[in-house]
Write a structure and sequence with these properties.
The structure is a homodimer of 165-residue chains. Chain A contains 6 helices and 2 strands, in the order αααααββα. Chain A has 165 residues and is mainly alpha-helical. Chain A has a single domain, classed as dinb family like domain (Four Helix Bundle (Hemerythrin (Met), subunit A), Up-down Bundle). A two-stranded antiparallel sheet of chain A has the order 1-2. In chain A, α2 packs antiparallel against α5. The interface between A and B is large, with 49 and 49 residues.
Chain lengths: 165, 165
């Protein structure tokens, strides 16, 4: 690790890298519970107002998560693509759990200076590492909020938003 | 400002306080555009699955935002309460804009050490300043995502999620 990577920011930290990982994985646990809460068929088909079914939104989360983290860690960007598509809730949960493991393994490999370094994610979207990671997390919260309406309109009580354990 | 407040975190910052404020106000601009996008009556009445109308969710955002920031800045917590209720979109936007100004004024008064200091928000919710502020922002993203479904089901194109200008 270079000296640059060990130098604390000149300004005070509000979030350490470890805290951000914990925060994201907490949100990811809630998203996993949302996948579990959907009836098998509704997960892949149910829509309101022409919006995408929840499984399709989850493909987007998967397509963004690990690839964004790999690019932030290495500066090498693969071509942007959504995750592989599956046919059952069990397969979707398996993709989710695999991503969980990969995120935990990749996170400590991000050089500290990369969080504030400008790059062009996937050759398309300019920004710092932290701005990209916030976009990934915010996008998951945003579309998962949409899925709360899907569940409520199906008469199903969604998992509590505040519970991230 | 005490020496403690000027000491950078021992770990590397992924987010400076100024960046977090910019991030939040970007989300708040998007929430403002969502308020504007609703038809006047639907803003206060429209619901899917028994969920709260968007104006009621906005009251929650307003009730959490400035009061959470005041408590983080001062360590003094007022009693938890939602924002005052209004009858028109124009009045709701005025409350929103007033909060925007207050947030910009209060933010620089938060002593740096408070972001990582444990406290009990509103005498009820334990956590650090940063964990509280993340909850406030995430809650806004979550419920605003719900309102995207309301608008789509009304046949109205919502503002772009990625645009925070």
């Amino acid at each position: 690790m270079s000296t640059k990577e060990l130098t604390p920011s000149a300004t005070v930290s509000v979030f350490t890298p470890e805290q951000l990982l914990t925060h994201w994985q907490g949100h990811r646990r809630l998203t996993r519970r949302m996948i579990e809460a959907f009836p098998e068929d509704k997960l892949f088909t149910y829509s309101i107002g022409g919006m995408r079914p929840f499984a399709v939104l989850v493909y987007e989360f998967l397509g963004m998560g690990v690839p964004s983290l790999k690019g932030t860690a290495t500066g090498q960007w693969q071509k942007w693509a959504e995750a592989e598509q599956v046919n059952t809730k069990a397969e979707l949960l398996a993709l989710w759990d695999d991503a969980t493991t990969q995120i935990n393994e990749l996170w400590p490999t991000v050089p500290a200076h990369r969080w504030q370094e400008e790059d062009v994610a996937f050759g398309q979207w300019p920004g710092t590492g932290i701005s990209l990671m916030c976009y990934v997390i915010d996008n998951e919260i945003h579309h998962r909020g949409q899925a709360y309406v899907y569940l409520r309109s199906l008469g199903i009580e969604p998992p509590a938003f505040w519970d991230r354990q």
